[in-house]
Structures
1.
Amino acid sequence: ISNLPFVYEALPMRVLFGVGTRSSARDEALRLGMSRVLILCGPAHEGVAGEISRELGDLHAGTYAGARMHTPVEVTEQALALARERRCDGIVAIGGGSATGLAKALALRTDLPQIVLPTTYAGSEMTPILGETKGGVKTTQRSAKVLPETVIYDVDLSMDLPVHLSGVSGINAIAHSVEALYARDANPIVAVLALESIRALVNALPAICADPHDRAARTGALYGAWLAGICLGAVGMSLHHKLCHTLGGSFDMPHAETHAVVLPHALAYNAPAIPEVMARLRDALGVDDVPAALYNLNRAIGAPRGLRELGMPEDGIDRCVELAVANPYWNPRPLERAQLHALLTRAYLGDAPS
Ligand code: NAD
């Protein structure tokens, strides 16, 4: 056991996990004392939202299907107006991190209880963290108010997540677990969850790409994503997440794809400072070179090669390095300008990590 002494704090949450579990939404709403439920989702999930509204029956008070990535406050205000007009006393959110983010933004303002049904592997449903965008600036805060009361993982809801999104969203989850292993406030419980989640996802993602309807692989990926979400909510993140946050905020890059491209490079950067973590990762994955294995996993799941392909401007490398050095944060290896520049250049071009 390393990281002595450590602090472990479990977050209060109820989780249902299985196939077809979305049929429990009404019971869970009643359990939380909801009588007028607002359903939140993005345009892709209006059909599922209709199905859940029928399950909810007389508890259903309205649906808002305008959730968008990075939780713009204008969208939150529209949903909030509907919640007030319909006198809602609870929220059911269906979707990825965008729908969950909207639910959390409403909970922050109203303290309404939330039930979340995730459809991607982003893991936001497990965290007390909310990122919101106002006037093009994304800010993040932690508040117990935004933590969902109940999360219903239904493997069936993830079955039609398109293959390319499944892969990169799964790597986004692996990134939470990798950074949890070397967090400043790491602890042995979170390490167990992190390694288990990495193993589950590394096995499941190529299988999903080979056959998107492979229910066992979908189950493994959702299980791994759940555990990764717990890790993200439990301990602090460092270089990888900070770089992705800067890239997303500065260049409006897609969330999961950016995480997939950056992860092998961020881990290679930190590797010299975290020999014990690298040994555990090598052991868990059965490989000698973990950053190279993650880079190859990206190739296998068809992730974009580099940040250039995702639309990042080349002078963005300098801007990103300057932002990182100007607002230093804790990282196992100090932030060094030249090395960060080299890391981002490789990620930009799609080169292998080194
Ligand atoms: P998302 O929710 O925007 O979903 C990505 C796309 O996939 C959308 O177009 C969506 O409609 C579609 N989609 C989702 N599930 C689908 C399914 N099952 N079938 C078909 N299409 C589906 O993206 P995301 O990657 O899940 O979440 C990203 C957002 O979440 C970002 O804003 C990010 O900042 C936030 N996030 C927050 C936290 C946190 O702890 N606060 C954690 C992770 C992500």
2.
Amino acid sequence: MNRTRSEQLYQEALQHIVGGVNSPSRSFKAVGGGAPVFMKRAKGAFFWDEDDNRYIDYLAAYGPIITGHAHPHITAAITRAAENGTLYGTPTELEIRLARMLKEAIPSMDKVRFVNSGTEAVMTTIRVARAYTKRSKIIKFAGCYHGHSDLVLVAAGSGPSTLGIPDSAGVPASIAQEVITVPFNDLDALQTTLAKWGEDVAAVMVEPIVGNFGMVMPHEGFLEGLCKLTHDNGSLVIYDEVITAFRFHYGSAQTFAGLGNPEDIQPDLTALGKVIGGGLPIGAYGGRKHVMEQVAPLGPAYQAGTMAGNPASISAGIACLEVLQGEGVYEEMDRLAIKLADGLKASADRHGIPLTINRIRGSFSTHFCDHPVTNYEEAQDTDGEAFAAFFRHMLERNINLAPSKYEAWFLTTAHTEADIDATLEAADASFREMSG
Ligand code: PLP
């Protein structure tokens, strides 16, 4: 496949943009390096690159594009918003509409505040939890990604209940000392950690369904146990639902069937992003009224934003949720994802390639290994080179995946049966080459 123009643009980008990309996950470093593909247009389930190659897209911009690219209902809403002025710096009725839609779908959110990214949303939930509890330490889970603010760029120390160490240059060791990282799906480790740090712990933060070391479900009873242990300790539960909200059904993980009795798995604070902006920049956080009343102008915890609640992002978010309210929308994504995931597994088996697929409704992750993946350690213990080879073979066959073994495939409302068939054909040919 000719990708000359992408290669030229990458060389040019390297001269002006650090690393040639505006987010490290876009580089091809984790799949053998080289020029990432420069896209110039996207519509529905498809991308076109600068050399006019067409790809079926399963990246979905790392999650937000659940209705496919340039969905007409969302495009019309953005156009209308732009014609009425893109940024006011005053309250608008639109913000109330989207806040109400979020509250109706996520009952633990009595009050909402809009911000501009998932990073901001998570960062602020931590500040609010600290303000409310007047405590400072945070417990999080290994492999969960919560954006790039200092406090969550912290890796585990030498044991489950030891303090963290910086996971990025520029994060001071003093900040890492405020965070303890424990393995996902391990209530014993959480219990030990809470027992050790007790009244220092402001909050336990978790992706209730993990989306960042593949898609990983909590074990039965994990979220119930997490909420009980945390609340018994006088700490708050923060759910990072930046990926999970509106991804699997019209609602969030805290209302997703099978994860536990809804009353027993309610967080105090929730962070949102991605899908709720319909492809424009957005984040939101919310929670119990008495907790959210810590936030300025009502309370002492400060958080602000020039761009927050801008009419374009809010309009795109409303339009996106309206599409997702359509009948059978999620069921159709599930149906196609089952066909695709089952087909991939059968094809890998045929060619003798070990593959574990974690599918949760319309999204799934492909782990090149022959063991289950239920925590970060198991996700790390998979064949990154096999993934890189698969990624490159698929790209050559016009299938666009995320360039990392940890990222999910996202189905959208725009994918069709024909796209799934074409993807399975490409995968079968890729596995054949890899095994030969
Ligand atoms: N939280 C989770 C679970 C995420 O997956 C991400 C981004 O991938 C973030 C937070 C950060 O969101 P953003 O990239 O919008 O800052």
3.
Amino acid sequence: MKFEDLGLSQPILEAIKDCGYDTPTPIQEKAIPNILMARDVVGLAQTGTGKTAGFTLPMIEILSEGRAKARMPRSLILSPTRELAMQIAENFGTYGKNCKLSKALLIGGSSMDKQIKIMERGADVLIATPGRFIDLFERGNILLNDIKILVIDEADRMLDMGFIPDIEKICSLLPPMRQTLLFSATMAPEIKKLTTRFLSNPKEIEVSPKTSAADTVEQFIVRTSPKSKKYDLEQIIKNEDVRNAFVFCNRKRDVDSLSSWLKNRGYRAQAMHGDMAQSQRSDTLNGFKKGDITLLICSDVAGRGIDVDNVSHVFNYDVPMNADDYVHRIGRTGRAGQTGRAWMMVTKYDDKFLAAVEKLIGNSIKVVDIDGNNSPEAKPSRKEKKTYVNKSNKSSAQKKMPNNKTSSRQKSKSYKDDMADFCGFGDDVPAFFKN
Ligand code: AMP
């Protein structure tokens, strides 16, 4: 099938051509005609499948018909994270460059006044995180009467972050006569409930088996110990032909320390997590996209939906505590038909989380040593161990690196606290994290 067969008009087809897309992806093939027919849609699709274009292209087509009035947006896209919202806005601009549509990005961490001004001029589409949207609505800055299309993107992530009550609230505030599109990588019972309650006879579209990793990503596990972990990571980075990589840590303090450590060792590494100011997060992401930064050390705030072309590697410095996150993390590589390699550092303390990941993806991940040789035991060689000891004796900065020992205060932090911290909600903190 070609894009020309999907019912999109010439200005949009030209923008697609400029992006270099030849053929629609499966989700685009299935979603676009249904959205253009004004159907509600439930799309079971992961990031990396082209789902953003799957809903933005037909939205641009539909919205091209009219114009927004002041403070009365015509459509709303809800995104769980600021980064994803920014990316959707970017895509909207790219695909809609030949159509005169206006958009407003409503996310925490950015000036509310500017966002209000843009809305006051009239925005065809609002792209928002739920917290900031509710905040602006409650201050009386948005009139919802004209909203004809609602998109709930990454609904499963919304669920993980405790945003479902906010989503329910927003759905209840919007005019009932509207088109609703919901996208999710998995269909948890809470999301199913949401679709039953707020969507009307939706067309269900599924494009990839849930929770499977892309075939284009080769996956490896390296057995390591908390002490030698960072040295093993460095050795793998040296061995592999790393063009650019996401390095995921579970905790933001480890994001900071690992990134400092790698920087000190001469790598173009930069940290990204939810405690950083939004402008800093944006600059870091742009630097990574441009290639100025080659190693992006991050928390799961970057795990979903962040789209950077040609990422060669993903390193799970920590085994994710939430198995779903593994699939999302490694989905940062091997995108749009490219190949990628995903490595995960596993200590004996991680076996429970590793088992959950392997259960979710339905197979065991290949265990190799740090040189990539098949090795079920895969312990660092004695020589390597010795080197590590020597190295750690040399540098006081390395001695300060944290290991897996946590203080009792840190231990008492719950998963919720950690997730809230990772995600850096700022004024978007959902109720889930507050109790
Ligand atoms: P998404 O799943 O929306 O995050 O998109 C994943 C990647 O696929 C992005 O880099 C898009 O630019 C790219 N993409 C989207 N549609 C197509 C297409 N039809 N052909 C090639 N690449 C695409």
4.
Amino acid sequence: MRVWLLSQFHDFHIALLDDVQVDFWSKDDVMVSPSRQESFQRQLNEMDVAWEISIDNVQTVVQEEKESLQGESRSLSRDKFHSYQEMKDYLQELAKLYSNTVSVGSIGSSYEGRDLPILKISSGGDDTRPIILIDAGIHAREWIAPAMALYIIQQLVENPSNADLIANVDWHVIPLLNPDGYEYSRKSSRLWRKTRSKTKRKGCFGVDGNRNFDIHWNGIGGSTDPCSETYVGPRPFSEPETAALRDYVMKQLTKSGSRIKLYLTFHSYASGILYPWGYTWSQAPNANTMKALAQEANLAQKRAGGHDFTVGQTARVFYAAAGGSDDWVASAGRVPLVYTVEMPRGGNWGFDLPPSAINRTVSAFWPAVRVMGRHVQRS
Ligand code: ARG
Ligand code: ZN
């Protein structure tokens, strides 16, 4: 009897293989679309095939699994500084899990050929909404900067209570702009700052990326000596990493101005929220707006247990240095709100914040990012 049933079922099986509404997971587990369910059950009964429903709604189960996986993706821990590869894997993972809102792209390649990933978060709007652009890690040894960028990504993507921030604004995050230097600082020389390109001087490598932008390039605060930590490079945008950022920013320019409304570039370790200009003492046209917002952001993060950050114009509260990404992005009306954020110091030298301090440092600054995000949303 049983054999008969099976052989009957076998013919039945063959007959159903072409039916797109019937999906055989195994020889006796079948998924049937809701519209086909009634006729399918009738067919089974006519052929005396015993059956039972084991999953009433597959979609629910798929969703539950997805949610449990989302829990796992929070596994990008904050108890260590991650490698370039770990960061990349995490971004890919997010793009897979949150394919409706998250995508990973590339703005170019580093000198050593590493791809420069950009994570884009958008809840809709077909690439017409304002963009908040964030980068980190142009200076290799400032490890807490990419950690901050990754934390911002985690908050925006994985924490539903920040959904308001992505409701009508797109966030584009380049968590590691100088991966060659970063990996070099992990494997060979902890205090490496520059890129890793060859220079005309034997034995001296790399350009200071934050002196390589075409804004009063090779002016104040940089060096033409390839062995210097602030080497400006042979020409503006000589580095593939800075040229990639330039090209990306230029692509966001539309007839009605730039889509980018706010640019944050993360460094360490001077605890500062700094706005242009860095190359001159003169004030930027919207210095007052930038100052007020920075002060508001500073207050918010202080209330969350953060340090008191220095707020002010770079050249005035810090030192003057030309060729920075912040000044270039702010110039020619490319972006109205621009900040260099210097994360707090830690460890023995300032750059070597112990891993145990990562979580409290990045989470303390998050409220400042929220304030800035809300500001862009409202304007
Ligand atoms: N510590 C950063 C540097 O020296 C600060 C950059 C501020 N911006 C500027 N355009 N100077 O590169
Ligand atoms: Zn820096």
